[in-house]
Amino acid sequence: MESLVIGKVIDINYKIxxxxxxxxxxxxxKAHDMTLDRDVALKMMDARLAADGSFLRRFxxxxxxxxxxxxxNIVTIHALRESELGFCIVMEFVKGMTLADVIxxxxxLPFGRALHIFRQILTAVGHAHREGIIHRxxxxxxxxxxxxxxxxxxxxxxxxxxxxxxxxxxxxxxxTLFYMSPEQLKGLANVDHRGDIxxxxxxxxxxxxxxxxxxxxxxxxxxxxxxxxxxxxxxxKIKPDLPKELVKVITKAIDTDLGKRFQxxxxxxxxxxKCDTIGKAEKERRVNDKTVTIIAAKPHRSKxxxxxxxxxxxxxxxxxxxxxxxxxANALISIQTDPPGSVVLMNGKxxxxxxxxxxxxxxxxxxxxxxxxxxxxxETSLVVDRGESVSISIPLTEIPAIAEQVTKPETTSQSTGDxxxxxxxxxxxxSASEKRIEKEESTVTEQVIPTPIRSPGDLxxxxxxxxxxxxxIAAARVLVEPFTYQDTKIASPFSKYLKTELEGKLTEGExxxxxxxxSFVNPGSKDIDQAFAEASGASYVVAGTYWDQxxxxxxVATLHRVSDNREIAxxxxxxxxxxxxxxxLRLKPQNFEQVVDDLKVIxxxxxxxxxxxxxxWTNKGADNLVFSKGEKMQVYxxxxxxxxxxxxxxxxxxxxxxxxxxxxxxDESRVNLPYKIPGEFQCDAPFGAEVLQVFARTEKFDPIExxxxxxxxxxKEDLKDFLFATRGMKRIREGVxxxxxxxxxxxxxx
Length: 750
What we know:
Layout: E1 9-10, E2 14-22, E3 26-33, E4 38-45, H1 47-50, H2 53-67, E5 77-83, E6 86-92, E7 97-98, H3 99-106, H4 111-130, E8 143-145, E9 151-153, H5 158-161, H6 182-185, H7 194-209, H8 220-229, H9 235-238, H10 244-253, H11 265-297, H12 306-326, E10 330-338, E11 343-346, E12 349-353, E13 356-362, E14 364-371, E15 378-384, E16 389-395, E17 403-407, E18 412-415, E19 418-421, E20 427-431, H13 439-442, H14 456-471, E21 475-480, E22 484-485, H15 493-506, E23 511-514, H16 528-535, E24 540-549, E25 552-561, E26 566-575, H17 592-603, E27 614-618, E28 625-628, E29 632-633, E30 635-639, E31 643-650, E32 656-658, E33 664-666, E34 675-676, E35 681-682, E36 688-697, E37 706-709, E38 712-715, H18 719-727, E39 738-748
Parallel strand pairs: 10-16, 21-23, 21-24, 22-24, 28-39
Antiparallel strand pairs: 1-2, 2-3, 3-4, 4-6, 5-6, 7-8, 8-9, 10-13, 11-12, 11-14, 14-15, 17-20, 18-19, 24-25, 25-26, 27-30, 29-35, 30-34, 31-32, 31-33, 31-36, 36-39, 37-38
Helix pairs in contact: 4-7, 4-11, 7-10, 10-11, 11-12, 14-15
């Protein structure tokens, strides 16, 4: 049956090409996303599992949680779909091999390669743990290795979903038992993240020894007993040349005592980093010791005077002592891309555009991000040693232009006085990069609502069909922004709900695909939100606003083309005010009037002195921002001169706090580069409209009074006094530059 679907198109959009694997959840297929012209992996849920309603609900909830994981070492979840074959998760397709296949082909991994791989695994798993997600099924077959041994961890959370309703663990086949922690084998309901640490330790054991500490003849019962009792053969008994520090790391990771195990992925990562440093130093010492020993022990049969021999030995000893000191501390890297002219970020810092030749870097792990408009973001990592010169070439994948299907309207032409009416519509595909849709053709407002709007779903359906009808675009990659209230930058819980509904309606029928914000963008000289849209792969952006009016609520949705930020279609709807009474969602932000009044105060006497440029944005962009409870907000800034910064954050309850230490300094090395301010800020109560106001100055700010409470640094002054104290009169001093910027966002509970 599984082979019968090869070559078929499911869910209108995904053409299945081959089977990638099978597991307890079902079958994983390789497919082609015909809308976005990219390969994806489809994890199809087994029909028998789908029949269990409680299992299905857990599956859906877990898929939504996993989709929020944004980490380069975790396979990206694109969508959860219900197709004619059942429920499936649409995931990133990774071209490469599993770690299990690599071990099977090559045997034990070299020390450096293993550390490079497992540091990435720990980075991914640590990120998931911080988001409250435990893998529970880490094993080499769930670790994909792409080009350059770039790690992609797969199947997050699925083992957790496979727990039965009684809370006992269902042990799958394919070797999962070998990597399970003692507490998981005991069926404890509250197995925590340290179970993943154990599994990583066992996978590392197998990677560096080439085998597991069990015999082929061992029964499942014998293996369970060995794991629970901790009677595991030490890895250096299998491979005696393993570094002692590495053996200690593995032994600690698979300790049966939870208290003696590594307490976090970060702790184990640091242990591996230390292990790497000690290993390299030990290797250098052994090499140098060996050289001196061989030369010094060599029998001397020459009749030359003894002082000549002594001099030679002295020179060798001096060379031995000085050699580690003169060894180059850094490495060189050259980077080329196809096509060239791509922006390169190294460990989050921009280093220039390709080609980059002989760029000096510190030895260690290097994470590269390659960005170029209309090309997919490329991420990779590598490990460089001291004195090493590395040259890499990275091909980029162009995001294909979507053909816009434009239906020509009926036309009237005159010839020799006779009128001929066009009686049929002709459809032609016009490349988006070669011809633009005329604005007059697409912005005609149709106010006739074909069916009554009785729910948010009806509203989303009408707006989506209206935009599609006016543009006649048959295929598009669309980024949907939350609607704002009364054409401000302030949204509401209803905004988030309508966004989700609209995304669903836009993908019905025509081949419109939904994309989401990239997690990191270097905007360059572009508008920040346009840069985010381009980085996400969107060809169009849908945004909108709504107003309370005497006769109802008016909604306006617009469709903009990303390439030139041109508005090409508008849809309007007037909806009765009582239409949404049955929902528990607020249309109006609960502290709307207060925030609007405060923004007026903030904008009065706003200071932006020519010469100091300041940009501020978040991991979701700069406008139309909605953060849900538990989501992380990251704040980025960019200035064109070294300066001091003050970050004032106004909570939904009206209280104001400093987001970071006051007089935060941006030095010369960070000028004109995106800089993430330290820390991640998690969305929590109180909920509503909030404001981040950022001040920059080339001279330190005057001190302000704060009160520390509940890990916040609350401001004692009211808003006007705080602004006066911050702005002061320094802006009139010669040579002192000031600038301000703000981000308005909405936090919601659901």
